[in-house]
Design a protein that fits this description.
The complex is a heterodimer of chains A (272) and B (256). Chain A has ten helices and no strands. Chain A is an all-alpha fold and 272 residues long. Chain B has ten helices and no strands. Chain B starts with a helix and ends in a 7-residue tail after the last helix. Chain B is mainly α. The chains are: A mainly alpha (272), B mainly alpha (256). At the A-B interface, helix 1, helix 4, helix 5, helix 8 and helix 9 of A face helix 1, helix 4, helix 5, helix 8 and helix 9 of B.
């Protein structure tokens, strides 16, 4: 049998102050990262993994630092951020009104929904080859892919949020003689806002993936994806990995900013 | 009644409208749907009956794509669930891994497709690596959550009955975490499809993405469209299959 029976039962762990646990967590996190960096560095330096496959982490990080000061790479970063944010904004501008329209007209929604359910599974990246032929301009190509990829979570969350609107609030306002538009502005919009925000945060991650994907194919433009592709054609690992790292940092930043905004704007919302 | 009819009719109506609009516009970039379907039939589904009517082009490209998709997804599932359950039960492991997981998850996986292409050269390894890297995170994070939120009473009962470690994991931990894990698996399946396409577009010698890129480079627009339709259908079928499986496997929870 297992030794579990012989092991003395663990006493309940002593209560720790929240600050102490936060400190422990940070310490462990740092340890984890340090161990990973060390192992990856060693694996590459000792030749356990081919250097052409996995360059030493230190040289990737040095390269990432060098790229941060590189004017050309900064142009790439800016191009990626532009397409990312523009596409995301367009997706929101498209999906929220569409969601409001479908949500307030259930009959229309019943008819349109099957068509949407049919369009949704098409992976946005499958549109890239068509968009490459349709749009000679790289920014158009990128934003189109981003809009297609990222409108779904916002649309779904808007529809979901509308279903959660307090009917009592809506009807009392209506009975006080407010028109449908004022009800929409005063009750529906404020109460769906947190759902929309959550949808936007989900979409932001998808939008970044879509941006980089489109950039891999939008030749003759600037962008992180374009940079990676160019570095890839000469199989230079360090710049490729460093650029991918910066794309990850962008993703973390975007998510962090949106989460902080959500937290600030919707602190009044107690029911999650 | 009328509503239900409208709902049933909406797809055929949309199809007819699409057909009319494209025939009216006569834009080479937007071929009519009937033309796309005819082309799909000719290219892929007009083979001999012995091959289930699939042509050589279909078997030589659709099957390798599916194989990559499912292999990558399966590897990511096993890895994600194993590490996720471990981290979910051990705060120490979870704390050590958390920053790394968050950083890696934030990297857009398509950015690594060229990296894997350079590391593995052209071929299936590169595609599978891209898929695994991209889809392991949702599985991992959901498994952590599923394992962390398990009722401690269940584990203690299992221990009191002196179930072996193996039995505790397979019979108590895994079933209790299953609903969360399945949510992660489903999300990762649709992401796997996206990454299969992107990795084949970046570099491949066969596959649906390869066919699409080939059609693109020869400005064969109906050819590009057939791949879009096929990939959409594939996404629909994968999702429906997964939901059916999930319902069968999770019926014991009384939700089926």
């Amino acid at each position: 049998m297992t030794p579990a029976a012989g092991v003395p039962r663990k006493a309940a762990p002593p209560r720790r102050s929240p600050r102490r646990t936060a400190w422990t967590r940070t310490r462990r996190g740092v340890q984890g990262v340090a161990a990973f960096l060390l192992l990856a560095e060693l694996a590459s330096r000792t030749g356990l993994v081919d250097r052409d496959v996995l360059p030493p982490v230190s040289s990737v990080l040095t390269e990432a630092g060098r790229l941060a000061g590189d004017v050309a790479f900064r142009t790439d970063l800016r191009a990626t951020v532009t397409a990312w944010l523009l596409g995301l904004a367009e997706a929101v501008a498209l999906a929220v009104p569409l969601g409001l329209l479908l949500g307030s007209l259930p009959r229309l929604e019943a008819v349109v929904r099957p068509v949407l359910e049919f369009l949704r599974p098409i992976p946005a990246v499958a549109i890239i080859p068509l968009a490459m032929l349709l749009f000679p301009d790289a920014l158009d190509l990128k934003t189109t892919i981003v809009v297609y990829a990222s409108c779904w979570p916002v649309l779904v969350n808007t529809l979901y949020g509308l279903r959660e609107v307090d009917p009592v609030a809506r009807e009392s306002l209506a009975s006080f003689g407010f028109g449908p538009l004022s009800v929409l502005l005063r009750v529906s919009l404020p109460s769906i806002a947190p759902f929309v925000a959550a949808g936007v945060r989900m979409s932001a991650g998808i939008a970044l993936i879509a941006t980089v994907s489109a950039e891999l194919f939008a030749s003759g433009s600037a962008g992180i994806g374009t940079f990676i592709n160019t570095a890839g054609s000469s199989a230079r690992m360090e710049p490729m990995l460093a650029a991918a790292l910066w794309a990850g940092v962008l993703g973390l930043l975007g998510n962090g900013v949106l989460a902080a905004m959500e937290h600030r704007l919707f602190r009044w919302r107690t029911a999650r | 009644m009328i509503l239900r009819l409208a709902r049933l009719a909406s797809l055929p109506v949309a199809f007819v409208l699409w057909e009319i609009a494209t025939r009216r516009a006569d834009d080479p970039f937007f071929p009519p749907p009937t033309e796309i379907l005819a082309r799909m039939h000719k290219d892929w589904f007009s083979g001999p009956a012995s091959h289930l009517f699939l042509t050589g082009q279909a078997t030589g490209n659709i099957f390798p794509s599916l194989a990559r998709l499912l292999t990558g997804w399966a590897i990511a599932c096993v890895l994600g669930v194993a590490v996720g359950l471990l981290a979910g039960r051990s705060p120490r492991v979870a704390d050590h891994l958390a920053p790394l997981i968050h950083l890696f998850r934030a990297i857009p996986p398509p950015a690594l497709a060229p990296v894997f292409l350079a590391a593995f050269k052209i071929g299936t390894e590169m595609q599978v690596a891209t898929i695994v890297f991209g889809v392991v995170w949702p599985v991992l994070l959901n498994s952590v959550e599923g394992a962390r939120d398990i009722d401690p009473l269940k584990l203690e009962t299992a221990r009191a009955f002196r179930l072996s470690r193996r039995a505790r994991i397979l019979r108590v931990l895994l079933p209790a975490a299953a609903p969360k894990i399945f949510a992660g698996l489903r999300l990762s399946l649709s992401t796997a499809l996206i990454l299969m396409v992107i990795s084949e577009l970046v570099g491949s010698v066969n596959g649906i993405g390869y066919l699409q890129m080939l059609a693109q480079s020869t400005t064969d627009i109906p050819g590009v469209w057939t791949c879009i339709v096929l990939l959409g259908a594939l996404g629909l079928v994968l999702n429906a299959t997964f939901l059916t499986l999930e319902r069968h496997l999770l019926t014991w929870r009384g939700q089926g």
